[in-house]
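Case study 2.
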Amino acid sequence: TLKVNQIEAHIEFIASFIVFTKSPCWLRISTTKILSAKAKLNLLKECISHATLLDDQSKQCICDCFAQVEQCRAYRNAIIHHHIYDHEKGIGSYIDESHSPYQILVSIDALTILYGILCSLLDELREIDLLFRIETDAQKPGRVDRTTGKFHAFDDDKLRKDIIPEHTKRIMALQKSRRAMQKLPKFPDADLIRSLNEQKDDPAVVA
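Prediction:
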């Protein structure tokens, strides 16, 4: 829950203060109060779809991260609101917003997998933060003139050719590591539940 809260706080910061960095303070505060976490994600997706500085690869990295965030949020919500179905196997029963029932794994192993993915997503969001800053002109990278001591922001051509691609590579490296992790159990993961039943019913395992 703590990691999910940190992720949602970071998304809230990007959606409310970076995207609207040049807007009046009252608008940023109102955005924070009115929009849900899901609505803020949709707002950021819309922002990315109209981006002019980011290339297709950087946009895809951001969308990939957001899709995984939504999946993990759904899993976390199911964990919080589930009812025990079989505590020995770590299986819970959950009814989602559409009133569709399904089973989820709430075992220690499943929670450990979820936690590892959330930690990785938080690292990705910290890097994605900069892409939004560049795109919205909230904070552009640059260099300091050694002679005058003045800061000069990079022009759009430099951002498109060098800065954004290099930063996107770092995000892709993080996402490659995340994809190498164990995947979240499916909703429901029938094969896994079946294997757990077989282990319990197998006399050799009991012995």
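The chain has a mean pLDDT of 80.
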